[in-house]
Amino acid sequence: MTGTAARERDPGLQPERTRLAWRRTTLSGTVAAVLAMRTALHGGASAVRIVVCALCFALWLVFLLVAHHRIGALTATDRPRALSARHAVAAVACTVAMAACASALVI
Prior knowledge:
mainly alpha
C-alpha cells in the first residue's frame, strides 16, 4: 500500500460483527445466569445456594456493563479504539467466575 491508501482504513463490517458478537455473548450469559438461578432455587433455597445465586447475578451485571461499554465504543466512531486490557480481563474473569458459580449450583 502506498501513502494515502495505508492511512485510510475501511473497517467494513468488522465493528458491526463485533457489536453483534458482544450482544450474542450477553444474551447467552443472561440465559446461563437465569438457568443457574432457577436451578439454585428449584431444589430448595439454602443459604449457600442463595449466596452463589446472588454472586452469579452480580457477575452477570458486571459483564453486562463491560459489554455495554464496548458496544457503545464500537458504535460511537468509525474507527473504534481497541478493547482495553482492563475490560478484557474483567470480561474473562466474569465469564470464568459465572461458569464456576453455575458448576457449584449444579453439583
